[in-house]
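thought: user wants a sequence for this fold. calling inverse folding tool.
action: design(structure=
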């Protein structure tokens, strides 16, 4: 709990699909989805957790809930 504010996501291996990539955080189960739609500006990141999109302007913080559950 003491380290919570400084916890960073620990992204797993990148999984590649034709128009997107996915990386899951091993600490909190959040999934970062990198989407492509052609063109230099056609790229953006989305963040998902529990199959719901997290609407945000920056990377949501990592709550490390997997590590908390394992402790
Ligand atoms: Zn995380």
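)
observation: tool returned 71 residues.
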């Amino acid at each position: 709990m003491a380290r919570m504010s400084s916890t960073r996501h620990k992204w797993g291996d990148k999984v590649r699909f034709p128009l997107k990539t996915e990386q899951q955080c091993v600490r909190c189960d959040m999934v970062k989805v990198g989407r492509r739609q052609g063109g230099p500006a056609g790229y953006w990141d989305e963040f998902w957790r529990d199959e719901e999109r997290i609407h945000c302007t920056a990377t949501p913080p990592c709550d490390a809930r997997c590590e908390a559950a394992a402790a």
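thought: summarizing for user.
answer: Here is the designed sequence. The chain has one domain: 9-70.
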